[in-house]
Every structure is written in structure tokens, then in C-alpha cells.
Fold:
Amino acid sequence: MSAPPVLEVRGLTKRFRGLVALDGVDFAVPEGAICGLIGPNGAGKSTLFNLVTGFLPPSEGEIRFRGAPVTGWSPQQAGRSGIARAFQIARPFPGLTVRQNVRIGALFGRSGPRDVEGATDSALALLGIEDLADRPAEGLTVGHLRRLEVARALAARPLLLLADEPCAGLNPAETDAMIAALRRIRDGGVTIWLVEHDMRAVMGVCDRILVIAAGRAIAEGTPGEVAADPAVIAAYLGAAEESRGA
Amino acid sequence: MTIRIAAVLLLFAALAAAPAFVPPFEVRVLSLFCFWGALSLAWSILGGFAGYWSFGHTVFIGVGAFVPGLIVARLLDGGGAELMPLMVLAGGLVSAAFAAVIAWPLLRLRGIYFAIAMLGVAQVTGELSAAIEWIGGGIGLSLPDAAPAALAPEAFYHYVFVGLLALTVGVAAWVRGARFGQGLLAIREDEDTARMLAVPTEGYKIAALVLSAFLTGLLGATYGFSLGYITTDSVFRTDFSLNMIVHALLGGIGTVAGPLLGAAVMVVLTQVVLGEMLNLHLFATGALVVAMVLLAPQGLLGLWRRRARRGADGRPRP
Structure:
């Protein structure tokens, strides 16, 4: 219990002019866990990830990484310190091969340019895309793009992986493969925080879940606790069904 | 890989041996190839690798050439031929310093905005060099003949340009293989993602511009000496800026060999094939550029490799 959480946010608030995108959110991601972040579209999930990774400065509140205050840091500092992010819309470097993409993750990752080829190979293997290594990233299927996105983030040897809807657009078999890969990543010592719309995926894999709606945290707990929470059922589950087709 | 190194060594041996074996006109064509190949490759360190297209790189030729011009005219009373290597180095260093100063505001701009801003910087700097009396770009500045007595000037400048091409190829090949170069590629492909992957994007962009300006400045200073007399109009030339882009585009952007190939094709075309038809040559150059952009956006190398990677050419993103 003495080890500080890998990531902790307290009273995190983000305002865009008049609009409050995130309003006083508290959460802690314990080391070695897989945590979930869910909420209807527009709830502020991506904003929360943008604040944590330094893409946006928070209006108020505090972010701590491994116990140290890091509020207002830059994406580069976040990356070097050990936070990697897989974007919701996979953003591979289109003109480079799969291997070149993953290699750049390894080159600039937490441990710097040490054993770059080893980190690249193991990330490719863990996501099962070593056969595609020499293919250009452009023209990959959605399933392969998602795996490349996660592999590139993983090659940086992060301590915390933020995965923004890693299963979006995947068929059930691909979703199962992605979940299995996330478990293997966690078993390899990487803490994971993921945004996911696929309820089956979230409930099956997460240790703790934070639910936000309209910028506020409305529930937090184990998957069982969250699923039984009337506020969650009212605010999220109905909305999620409506937005599934989107 | 070893075959590639052997080919490069062979190319440079042939270039260096040329004055002893081929007639002066052909030596001049080869010198021009070295000059343009090195310029296009220097441009590519920023434009090809990092995807930041400069439309005003002639500013570094101009600054590079005016530095020795001013040293000779204002400090050395028109002499100092034996100091040419130091003055060329000074041209490169001042160009690099100039790039470092403009880098901070300009590299915040992306894509076409950066391209246009560079065009403006080149225009304004050229105008200032002509308007400020102390610089004297309107009237012009003389540079001493730096060729040693034992060598014809054409042969001497040919050797210097071969040496500068070798330097530029070496630097570009190193950058391409280094972590720095991989970071530049990441910036070209998607700058926001590069930031997230902890690529030090701001530092790398500045380093690429400064390095590119240093090499371009060395070439500009040497070009000034080879002319013997420089004015604003002879070194701050928009067509110089355009040629660098055209060569890189023609050969294959983002590679080391591409700009050299593009320079070779364009120099042969303009000097040898169309040398007799001066009116036609601008027209032919323009037509060729249009044809290349339409038919082979990856350049000749891309066409040859037949590994079409659509959209991966580092086009400026608006």
C-alpha cells in the first residue's frame, strides 16, 4: 500500500472559454493495474488523456506521476518519463514501414536509444504483427493499424500506457486478441489505463473503472460496482447504446 | 551497403579526376552538378527529411556569399585570397547563426506557411543587402581570385565543389541513419504524434534548419569566390530557391541519392541538351516539373523503386 499510484489526478479541471470540459476529477491508477475510463461521447475522456500527457495545460488541479507533481509538463516530458499513448484514431507515420514506426517509438522512449532493435522486435511480437514489419503503414487494415499503434507506444518501454479505444472498429475475434495483448503487456509490468466503448472489453479486463459524464466523475470502482451504480446506468449505459453506431 | 559505398567512392574519384581528363566545358558541367547536388541535398535536410519546405533557401547562399565579400571589401582592402577557406567557413557559420535567429519564430509555422515565410525572409534580406550602403549589394562587391597559381580557376573551384558535395553527402547520410534523422522523419510524417513519442521536435527542427543553412552558406561563399564579383541579384535569386526544390522533387524527396539524381538530370538537361536554346530552357524546365509532379510524385527514385507509397513524399501540409 505504501507505493504511490503510477498516476494520480486531483481536482483536475479544464475550461475552454466558457465550456467546462472537465470538472474536478479525482482518480488514481495503481501500479500493475488495468484501469478503465468510460463515459458517453463528449464526456471529457480525451480531454483527460490530453491533460495527463501534456497536450493541454489544466485550468486547475494537480497531476502526479509516480508520486511527483508533473502538472503542466510537455508531451515530450511525459513520453520520456514513461507515459505512452495509443490514439483513438490510429496515427501511424503513413510513409514509413511498420518496423520503422515501432522503431521510432523505441528510439525516443523512456530508456533512450538503448537496445532499440530488441524493444522493436519484442513490441512487434507481443502484438503479433512481426510478419507485417516491412509493409508500409499506409494501407493496413483497421485491426492491424490498432495493433501497430499499441506496438509503437509499447516500444518506448512505458510505465503507463494510455490506450484510447484500442478496440474501436475491431471485430469480436480482433477485440479478443487485443484484450489478450493488453493483458500480456500488463503482465510485462506496464500499467494500463484505457478508454473503451466496448463494454464487454472494459468489464472483462479492468481492475478499476472511472466513469465520467459531462466532465464530472460520477462513479468509480470495480467493474461490478460500476455496472450496478444507478447513476452510471442512467448517464452512461443508455447513451452508450445510442452512440454505438457512431 | 558495401556496394553503395563503393559506388559513392567511385563517383567521387571520377569527379575528382575529371579536370585531368575531360575538356573544360565538361568540367564546368560537372562542377555545376556538384554545386546543385550539394545545395539540393542541404535543402533536403530540412525539406526532405523534416518536411519543412523552404521556398527561400537562397537567403543562405546570399548571406554565405556576402560574408566573404564584406570581409574582403571592409577588412582586407580587396586582398586576402589566401584566407579563402576561413572566409568560406565564416560564410557558413554566419548563415547558420542567421538561421538560428529566424528559426524560433519561423519554425512555429507549419507547412505552406513556413514555405511562404522563408520566401519573405529571402526577399527582405535581399532587398536590405541592396539598400544598405555599407553592405553594398546594389553596386556589388569584388572577391579575389583564390585559385593557386598552379591550377586553372575552373579546376580549382571544381575541386572545392567536389569537396563540399562530399561533405554534404556525408552529413546527409549520417543524419538519415541517426536517431536525429529518424526524429525528423517522424516530424515530417506527423508532428503531433512525434511530440507524443518524445521526439524533441522543436530542437530537432532548429538543428535541421541550422545545419542546412550552414552547408548552404559554405556553398554560397564558394560560389561567390567562383563568380569573383557578387551583387544582390547574383546571389539572392528566387530561381536558386526553386531549383533546390525542383531537384529534390525530381530525384526523390527524403532520400540522399534523390536530390543528386535530380541535380544531375537538370544540369545535363539545361547545360547540355538545351544549352543552345536559351529561350526554350525555362519553358522545358517548367514543363518537366509539371510532368514530374503529375506522373511521378515520388521522383525518379520512387519511380525506379516502384514501391509507391502514396502521400509519403513530405508534401507540406497546410
In short: Residues 84 and 146 of chain B are 6 Å apart (CA to CA). The radius of gyration of chain B is 19 Å.
